[in-house]
Amino acid sequence: MSLQDIQDKFAKAEVGAARTAGSAQLIAVSKLQPDERVRAVLEQGHRVFGENRVQEAAGKWPGFKEEFENVSVHLIGPLQTNKARQAMELFDAIHTLDRPKLAKAIARLAEELGHCPDLFVQVNTGEEDQKVGVAPQEADAFIAECRDLDLPIIGLMCIPPVDEEPSLHFALLAKIAARNGLDGLSMGMSSDFERAIALGATHVRVGSAIFGDRA
Ligand SMILES: *Cc1c(COP(=O)(O)O)cnc(C)c1O
Q1: How many whole angstroms separate alpha carbon 73 and alpha carbon 48?
Q2: Pocket test for ligand 1, best of 6, 205, 208, 214 (most atoms within 8 A of CB)
Q3: 50: helix, coil or strand?
């Protein structure tokens, strides 16, 4: 597949769900992709990218941002508190806010730096031990805590368990967002983005379907 194919499928999925064209934002997940593939997508005019690791993004994006205008890069992988400063300097959005310690560190840094990326709270909708994210039943309290810290929470993010129907998880995420007055829903990947768009995704993270298999 290619960027154009995915954009066409996005448009179809939006129409199919009676949504406004462009209401779901495509985040091209460029982790572990060779620079020439990323450059090709930039040259086709795409400007929104996702990365999993602070270190990898730090080696890749400052250069591309100098070369191409209006690029935004989203952190979609787990964030260690000791990397929060670097992440806030590098990323335009962080999708993986998942614990009070990190929320407090980001709030302190936001005050010091005078800016804060858009934030999504990651919810572990499948309640999997190996996955980060707040448990669904703890989400409301954690969102309230983040709001008390004046953090710019714009939505929720989830990664459904690999062996379950993702739609159930997307619907659960949408329900938690709605009852907390949040509009942003970061959900859907290469294998399930159409279902995510049907269930209201506003930020969809697609990697291999755009770039090909990762190294
Ligand atoms: C890698 C990754 C993606 C993209 O996965 P693909 O299957 O390549 O589309 C999306 N979200 C997260 C959190 C990821 O780590």
Answers
A1: 6
A2: 205
A3: strand
User: Which string of b and e fits 140-159 if b means at least 16 CB within 10 Å?
Assistant: eebbeebeebebebbbbbbb
**How is 108-164 classified by DSSP, letter by letter?**
HHHHHHS---EEEEEB-TT--TTS-SB-GGGHHHHHHHHHHTT--EEEEE----TTS
Nearest atom (ligand 1) to Cα of 191: 7
For residues 171-186, average pLDDT: 98
Cα separation, 24 vs 158, whole angstroms: 16
Q: CA 173, CA 158: separation in Å to the nearest integer? A: 7
pTM above threshold 0.90? yes
Q: Determine the residue of 25, 27, 29 to mutate for testing ligand 1's pocket, defined as the one with the most ligand atoms within 8 A of the Cβ atom.
A: 29
pLDDT tens digit string along 21-51? Answer: 999 999 999 999 999 999 999 999 999 999 9
**Counting atoms of ligand 1 from 1, which one is nearest the CA of 76?**
13
Domains of the chain (ranges; CATH) run: 3-18+26-211 (3.20.20.10)
CA of 111 to the centre of ligand 1 (A): 31
